[in-house]
Amino acid sequence: MNKELAPYTEADLAHQNLVLSPPLEARGEDRVNFNSLISTLRRRRLLFLSVALTIFAIAMFLTFSQTPVYSSNAQIVIDTQQIRLAPRGDDVMQEEDSSLSSGAVDTEVQVLMSSELANKVAEALKLDSAAAFDPARDRPSKLARFRAWWNDEPLPVSARAYDPAAQREFIIGILKGGLSVLRTGTTYALSITYSSPDPQFAANVANEYARQYTQQAVDRKRDATGQALTFLSKRIEELRKQAQIDTQAVQQYRISNNLLSANAASLTEQEVSTYNQQLAGARAAAAEDVARYTTAQQQLRNGSNGDDVGEALGSGVVSSLKTQRASLAADLANMKTRLGPKHPDVVTAQNQLADLDSSIQTEVNRVISNLQAKVRVSNQRLGSVAGSLGGARGTLANSNRAMVGLDDLSRKAAASQGLYETYLNRYKEAAAQEGTEQATARVISWAQVAGSPSSPKIGLNVFLAICLGAGAGLSAAFIAELLFSGLTTGLEVESRLGVRYLGLIPTVSSIQKKAPAPEEAILENPHSAFSEAFRSLKTTVSFAVDHHVQVVVVTSALPKEGKSTTSICLARSAALEGERVVLLDCDPNRRTLNKIVPEAREVGLIDVLRGEAALEDALVLDEASGAYILPLNRTRAGNESIAGEPMEKLLNELRGSFTYIVIDTPPLLPIADGRVLSTYADAVIFVTRWRKVSDHTVRAALKLLPRGRVHLAGVVLSRVDMRKQVRFGQGDAAYYYNEYKSYYE
Question: Residue 164: CB partners within 8 Å, gap ≥ 6?
């Protein structure tokens, strides 16, 4: 009866579920292995070369299919040092520094790339008549082309061909497409580069851009000056009229308010001051005159004849008369003494003296009358001055009130006049500057006709194509390697699967020129590397488990991995070494061993297991090697499993007759028999095809082996191409095959 089987769970590892001596732990690299990277590249060299050459070919095709483009470069510099030719005021001609900020220079770059400047360049070069700028050549849209094809109509002509504005936009768009303007570092130098399939045209456009830009700067200044003059002339006329109106208003106000002087208030104040002084003088004079007159009246009332009045004393006439009287009085006294009182001369002298006294009195009276007249005059003058002072004070009050309005009108008139003069001076300066405008930029290098195309750059494109192709090839190689899950080396077997690596089985064609069938190659050349691989496998298996190995099961995950060939060659190799070997074909679906059986058999393994035939009748001797083969008959009768108690009994019987028993089982994934047969063996050899079967496929097959009841010796890689393995099989003995292959020769 079959024993109960316990399949592996997905969480189990192979080395935990299988009986290994000693068990192996899966291990990985703890550092970058450059040799592995090189090996990977060598493994994927065809993919690398294919991708790299494809990318290189595409790049070269695109490069050589491009229309050569020529670039011409003109350089200009923004001139911040401007010579002021026209003086301003008392200035002399001098140099002005108008430094620009970085943003201002960047703005000039945008001006160079503007549509306005492009339009001027297009007009200067007359591009509207150039064939390359004909809108009729503008290719219609894909939809328009499809409609024309669908309706079997000619392709429509672009609407730009009939619209001048659209035509101009079309020309400007093409023109700007080849333009490049760059600032040289942080300097004021600008580089104008134009690219075109026509080298002469490229140079012409670059130079025209430089010329138009420098001329545009002058035109902008000239236009600005003209606009300023036009504006200033209109504004000056307006300001002149306004200044006249304001001045007339001031004069009219002066007239209407009797403010005829330039500073009426100050003059009136001076007049009031003068009147005050005159009034004080008039009062003093009047008081003096009154005092004199009063004194004279008082003296007269006191009995004076007036001759002692101060004014009389000071009168020359009175003094003269008094002198005459004194002389006459003296003469009269002498005459009276000498002639007597009655003498006619004395009487005459007395009459003369009386006349003199009368004259003196008359003169004194006149003086007194003069004093009285002076008093009247002084009083009148005092009244007149007082009246004038009052009038001046009234006038001053009125002037002060009128000066408020006058000040306002005067300030307004002065402001209008000042503004008018400012604009007039600015107009004169602008008029003086007219015709002296200077360009703010100058050309320091004119564009030359390019002798070689700037695009495509063959050398650079070849270099970039090589780099791109190499990069794409490397990427494809490493991506393919990352996606590749096949097993190549023993290191990968042990690191990915955690099971022992038993070695590899090379293909015969990879180690010798004439390549017979593998099962024949081991007979024809028993000392070849191919034969040595099986002897090495047998030896490695014997040390892979901790007990004697007599029964060996050879299995795989999938069909066509070299399992049956390995079984045949392993059995023949052991037989050639003198072992009594029997090879059992337990794969009813393939019956691979029948190809080495010389004749068709009517009985076989199934018949022996059923008890319908004797073992001796079913065994076939392989005369070439001396091994025995227990094949399957040509047709299988029934669907019963090979594995079971009859097989155990048969193996026990064979153990007594043979020293080495090799069992070729079905693949583990599709057929369950191989899993059970593995439990009967002393060692299980798991065959996986080199670089064809993925590691997860092998893990899936190993998990199907019964837990703890299978002595898995390890994994052997079959059908290995030694010519490739020596290039990227680092870590395997096969990596050094070229160094020791002569040993087999």
Answer: none
Span 295-299, average pLDDT: 70
The two structure tokens encoding residue 503: 């070695």
User: Is residue 682 within 8 Å of 543, Cβ to Cβ?
Assistant: no
The answer to whether position 178 is within a domain reads: yes
Do residues 506 and 399 both lie within one domain? no
**Token pair belonging to 311:** 């004014």
Q: Which residue has the higher pLDDT, 282 or 85?
A: 282
pTM given for the model: 0.55
- Give Cβ neighbours of residue 179 (< 8 Å, ≥ 6 apart): 112, 113, 118, 192, 193, 194, 205, 209
Do 213 and 358 fall into the same domain? Answer: no
709, 679 Cβ separation under 8 angstroms: yes
Question: Which residues have C-beta within 8 Å of that of residue 491, sequence separation ≥ 6?
Answer: 501, 730, 731, 732
Contact 176, 151 (CB under 8 A): no
575-622 confidence digits (pLDDT tens) = 999 999 999 999 888 888 877 877 767 888 988 988 889 999 999 999
264 domain-assigned: no
pLDDT > 80? residue 436: no
Per-residue confidence (pLDDT) for residue 237, from 0 to 100: 84
Q: Which of 86-100, 246-260, 539-553, 622-636 has the highest mean pLDDT?
A: 539-553
Residue 96 sits in which domain range?
68-221
Are 717 and 504 contacting, i.e. CB atoms less than 8 angstroms apart?
yes
For range 463-475, the mean pLDDT: 91
Domain boundary among 407, 435, 450: 407
Q: Are residues 546 and 616 in the same domain?
A: yes
CB atoms within 10 A of CB 26: 13
Using alpha carbons, list the distances in angstroms from residue 526 to 162, 466, 521, 662, 680: 91, 49, 8, 19, 30
* Dist CA 411 CA 405 (whole Å): 10
Let me know if residue 474 belongs to a domain.
no
